[in-house]
UniProtKB/TrEMBL annotation:
Protein's UniProt name: Uncharacterized protein
Keywords, ordered alphabetically: Membrane, Transmembrane, Transmembrane helix
Record carries keyword tRNA-binding: no
TM spans (from-to): 186-205, 234-254, 286-307, 319-344, 372-392, 426-449, 619-637, 672-700, 707-729, 749-770
Domain of life of the native organism: Bacteria
Organism this protein belongs to: Globicatella sulfidifaciens
Amino acid sequence: MIEFRKNFWRKSFITLALVLLFFNSVLIVRSIDVHQAKSWKKICSHVLEMEDEQRSVYIKQHAEQLNKVQENYFASVISIPDHDYSNDGQIAEQNYDQAQLELITDDLFTETGQFNVLNEQLNSNEKYSDFIANTQLDFADTFAVFQTDDPYLKKVEQKTATAYLPFQNRELELTNWRSFEQADNWRIGELFICLLIIFQAYNLFYNEKNSGFLFLLYPLPKGRSYLMRTKMSVLALTSLTICFVFALNSYFVFEMYYGTFDLSVPIQAIPSYQRSVLDITLGDLILIQIMVRSLAVFLLAQIVLFISQLVRRISGLFISLAILLIFKFTLYTYSLSFGIFSILRYTNLIFFLNVRELFQTEYFINVFGNPVSARLFISVVLPLGVVFMFILNQTWFDKFIPVKPVKSGTGIRSAKISTSLIKHEIYKLFISSRGVIILLVFTVLQIYLSINSPIDFLTKEQFYRQYMKKLEGEITDDKLQFIADERLKFDELRNELKLFNELYEQGNISSTEFNFKTGEISSQLSTEPAFIQVENNLFHLQQLEPENRIFVYDSGFNRLAGLSEQGESDDILNSTILVFCIIMLLSEYATKDYQIKLNQITDAYKYGRERHLKTRLQTGLLGSSIAYMVIYVPHLIKITSAFGIQGLFCNIEHLPRWQQFLSAGYFNKMPIIIYFSLLYLGRLFLVWFLAIAIQILAILQRKIQRVIGTALFVFNISLFISLLGFRIIDKYSLNNIFYGNPLYQKAPFLILVIPLWILVLISASFYYCLKLVDTTSNK
């Protein structure tokens, strides 16, 4: 009971768990398209209230009507010159009246797309019996290898067909599956679970190992055995608890936006599980997934615990763990899903954590030429792995290893002890205070976010990119001729479209020919919105001096400057993560000396405490600078690799959307690279000020919980609120200073004033910190 209370109810563990839960909720909310989600929830609520027969007819008829209205709308607006495509979601009311169509939502395009999805799923459910009847044929068509005479593959085919036999007469009902699928595919929660269990396993062993408590138990076999069993029991309970809580958190947040899902429906009613051979309900599936993931997380925790016994230092633990996980991930990624090497994939820790794949369809493992169900195989291997690691940890810890006496003599070389204060403080920050772990966690998080939130180029942006890549550089006669030819081409296409409309109204061509011709012309006109933006750029450049007329592909610069919705979201997310990272990184380090009363020694003399404080501040600035690079470097790599950096040395006047700068006289001559250098330099200065502010809080409050709480409340809570979508908080907080872009776009001179103002704040806070440590020394 003492071990449970000491570790499971540890303040640091509970604080980290709550923070990760909150962060998980925030990231889920940020990933949801609220408009789409609310529309889906409203549509499902309306449709699922109907009887089955009525529902089927209604979905098909309503989807057909919606598609017709949408086609008529496109046919009408495509012939309108200079049509504003940004308002296509607001459809004219007469289109509804003519079709006598009542919308469930207020957006025709959104409702059309979602009813098409419902209609596809309805058709898929109706054809489920046909799919089961033709399972063998489906496999033969899907995988060419099943058409061979290989005995093993024939066994696989036969077992697969047999597994689907119980579902021959199964009829599937339509359900609201979107919230479950979104939660089921949410990977960040799994990442947070792994981080939390690694943190708990680390605390279970290293705190007592570093304090020397474990050496007191070495002479007592029963004490060692009982202690290890208790620690692994704590890890087992922790694994089950956090898997259940994070799953509940994810399902709850997604249900808030997409609506509730029925736990009693068979899992085949979920599109991604329609090929599953498990005869269970959705509620059963969720419980089974939580149990399997709990076992996998418990196995990971036991691996961490075992490595902790082998290595002497924490750095060795995380290096070993990183190597192991990279190796496992490589095997999981590159091992085939079938064949003799499939066992490397299905006995992999990564596969155990990504448990959903196991239940979505039937997989087989080649065991001595016999196909064995991967699900059955893993149901044996995973518990055996847990039992094996349990016994291994128990046996290894039970073994008494006496401390070898140090031999005296001239042959012994004493280790050199560094007397460098800065080296000592760096070690305290990155090793003793687990700074390396925190930076590694946030590095992985940023890389994960960069990889899993790729830049989605809309159709207009794709065409605009192609135009600007072709036109980049100084304006020449050839480029002007190209633009003139493009405008002439679009004018001719519109005239053709107008002609076909007149011919169709006069009855001179059939509807089939009309639809074919207008569809072909509409396809060619799809590039016109992007071309209109190019023409606007040309008009802007023609207002400049002839030698300054340069085309610059500006989409990437606009995003980095926060001049798009995605750019604003990037600024908010990166600022929130950065401030949170620095608070987590520096809070323990800043309060460590006060917790162990070391300050009573170092602060005894004025010279000593000033030198010590200056060194701590320098170390804090170093740590915060590294955190700054950890957050922004992956983001910059993602943006520059997607949009390029051509034109970086051009002036701001070449960017049409930077209107405030263009009307600010001298500032429109500023090179783009200078603007972004000042932007990121100002953010770096603000990070340094935050590092000094945390040190001031540590001097005043002394306890890590108070420092973290105060820093989060003052600097981070408003950023979290803005991240949730309540942008009004930006006007009444420090958020815009963290972003930088909103202030600089409104008042360009602030790009010079704010960095200098922050430097003054840094100097003042540094001086205040030195005075403060004098007045509070030896307290």
